Amino acid sequence: MDKKQSRLRRARRTRAHIKTMGVTRLCIHKTPRHMYAQIISPQGNTVVASASTLESDVRKDVKSTGGVAAASAVGQVVAERARAAGITRVAFDRSGFKYHGRVKALADAARENGLEF
């Protein structure tokens, strides 16, 4: 089993657990160059809010789109958009990535800006 298959297996297990809880989830995805975050409804069919380093309002504050500072900016923006949509409590779906570095920075920024998980 290679690295990507292992990550997807971990992600599948986590998503199954979140689905049984029936809560809104904050799902992230990272590539070496960009960071993406979505707030997905409990049914799993609607994206309530999203943010990524592809957006100009996130890019204007950071030097590079692939670093910890960019991940923090994405976390801040997605938390603000979720609060505007009336969502304060979510489950954190890290998509099988380690809770370290950019993933941790995004989660901490989302918590600081009003999301609870």
Describe this structure as you would to a colleague.
With 117 residues, the chain is of the alpha+beta class. It has one domain: Nucleotidyltransferase, domain 5, CATH 3.30.420. Helices cover 44% and strands 18% of the residues. It contains four helices and four strands; from the N terminus they run αβββααβα. A four-stranded mixed sheet has the order 3-2-1-4. β2 (35-40) and β3 form a beta hairpin. α3 packs parallel to α4 (102-112). The N and C termini lie far apart (31 Å). The model has no long low-confidence stretch (mean pLDDT 95).
What keywords describe this structure?
Nucleotidyltransferase, domain 5, alpha+beta, 117 residues, 4 helices, globular, 4 strands
Structural class: alpha+beta
Rg, Å, rounded: 14 Å
> Roughly how much helix do the residues carry, as a percent range?
40-55%
Give the terminus-to-terminus CA distance.
31 Å
- Which CATH top level class fits? Alpha Beta
Q: Return the CATH architecture.
A: 2-Layer Sandwich
Largest sheet: 4 strands, mixed
Treating each run of at least 4 consecutive H or I residues as one helix, how many helices? 4
Main β-sheet, spatial strand arrangement: 3-2-1-4
SSE series: HEEEHHEH
Describe the secondary-structure layout.
Blueprint: H1 3-21, E1 25-30, E2 35-40, E3 47-52, H2 56-59, H3 68-84, E4 91-93, H4 102-112
Parallel strand pairs: 1-4
Antiparallel strand pairs: 1-2, 2-3
Helix pairs in contact: 3-4
